[in-house]
Amino acid sequence: MIIVSSEEIISQKVLPYDLYDEKGTKILEAGEILTPGKILLVRNHEVLFRKEDKKEERKEIQAKTIKRYSRETYTENQEDIKKYGPLNKKSKIDFQSQIELKSSYINAMSVFNQSDVIRAKSMILEIRDKIIKDSQLIRKNVQFFSELKLLGEHKNIHPLNTAIFSVFLANKLEYNEVQIMEIALSALLHDIGKIELSGEISDVSKMTKDEEIAYKKHPLNGHRLIKTELKLSENIARVALQHHERMDGTGWPYGISSTMISEYAQIIAVCNHFDNMTSSATNLEISNFREALRALLKAGSRAFSPKPLYAFVHMLSYGDTTSFEELKF
Q1: Domains in the chain, please, with CATH?
Q2: Rounded distance, CA 257 to CA 302, Å?
Q3: Average model confidence (pLDDT) across the chain
Q4: Distances from the Cα of 259 to the Cα of 81, 190, 240, 265, angstroms
Q5: Which of 203, 227, 81, 215 is nearest to 150 (CA)?
Q6: What is the largest CA-CA distance in the chain?
Q7: Which comes out higher in pLDDT, residue 109 or 28?
Q8: Which pTM was predicted?
Q9: Which of 85, 175, 245, 329 supports an S-S bond with 179, CB 3.0-4.6 Å?
């Protein structure tokens, strides 16, 4: 066994070898993505070991890793694309990661609906860690919002997009690592209360009165599920409860305003609305990302907290005229 330094390990994107603790117990396997949670696990061990691999074996692992993250894998994943939705050809998130995020979220929600809450929670935390890790890797290379967005069925990709935008915004606002992890998790779960809706609502502007009453309960449902089922903190649950509240008190379910709305909910509210607009999930006529940013500014501080609102608008280039159709192959 060979001693490995934690710095050597966390400098990797994907772990190239099995990792063992001082008792010889394997704690991580070769090929695993080094998410923030796994990096924390590594740092909690004073001494770590790996087996001495043959050169050929290590080259094979590295080759698989390179192939996994190549954009050339598009033609090899047609079945996944049909199942999970189109890939964004302009995204800085590589094709394999786009598929992994979408498939992982769909699987996690399926497991949650089967009442296997412990397993679903673990899967959701893994998705959170991957979003944060991927965001760290691409952050310096992203110029436009169109380079971040995932494509597919709205109910499956909206929580992911909201989380991706929220992580970028939290970094812009200089939140610390723990806060960013909480914000990412809050964004992933902000709409979880919708799983209790009896049917899919494709257009909120055309709901019947009964549908609207049921729909407006999803923040309350989400708060309860996060607290009682997933057993997560009030910080996380409050975002689900408050992400439709507005700074001027015209939101719902309680019509609270200003500083009564949590900081995390203020951040997710901006990202949630932006993704809805760029997914044609509002009654606004928006055809590209610049128009969506204009609509955010028009809503202004009456709807959104000024600090996250203006940080979001200026986070990336305002001149993103990419239409939503241009993203697809």
Answers
A1: 2-67 (no CATH), 71-327 (1.10.3210.10)
A2: 10
A3: 88
A4: 42, 19, 16, 11
A5: 81
A6: 67
A7: 109
A8: 0.79
A9: 175
Residue 238's closest CA among 222, 217, 252, 251? 222
The amino acid that residue 245 corresponds to is E
Task: Give the pLDDT confidence score for residue 60 in this predicted structure.
Answer: 47
Q: Are 87 and 95 in contact (CB under 8 A)?
A: yes
Q: Evaluate whether 88 touches 150 at the Cβ level (below 8 Å).
A: yes
Q: What angle do CA 266, 271, 276 make, to 5 degrees?
A: 125
Q: Over 23-81, what HEC string results?
A: CCCEEECCCCECCHHHHHHHHCCCCEEECCCCHHHHHHHHHHHHHHCCHHHHHHCHHHH
Between CA 148 and CA 234 the distance in angstroms is 29
pLDDT tens digits, 141-197? 999 999 999 999 999 999 999 999 999 999 999 999 999 999 999 999 999 999 998
In this prediction, residues 61-80 reach a mean pLDDT of: 54
